[in-house]
Amino acid sequence: MIKILGIKIIDRIKEAGLTQGILSKYASLITTRLGFHELSTELCSREAYILLHLKGSANETGRLLSELKDLGGIDVREMTFDDSKPFVNFSSEEGALRIMGIMVEKKEHETIVSIQKTLTAYGCVIRTRLGVNEEFFGEPAGLIIIELLGDEIQMDLLEQDLQKIPKVILRKMVF
What's the whole-model pTM score? Predict the structure, then answer.
């Protein structure tokens, strides 16, 4: 099973240190970490997001998740890749932050090309993209995590087009 945690820090200045303390305690479970917040010459947002790609047993990752959920000032979401959960479409919450996970077998070259073409076609709604090498049920796989922003209709169309590609597993989280 592959697990991704998404953390929304409501007040980065106030809560980031406490969140970092928990993440440091469980650093051995974190294989990839991506953090981002709005930043410009005029603005430094207090709201921030962290995506964690985890390894470890269900008990270990469960303890991390429990400690994070007990911490005030953050919101935690999960994305799990396994065969037991079907993909559920995004909520139609306008303005919500959408994170999509795309899992694909690496031996399927045509599938990889189709995914790349689809992501390129919808590039105007993909703000952040992270690729991770993974193993899924003993086979080499690629995990792509994308942050979506912008036109809600285009994001929905991207989701629909990805669902049409064979041998692709989609998961999502919404903040």
Answer: 0.80
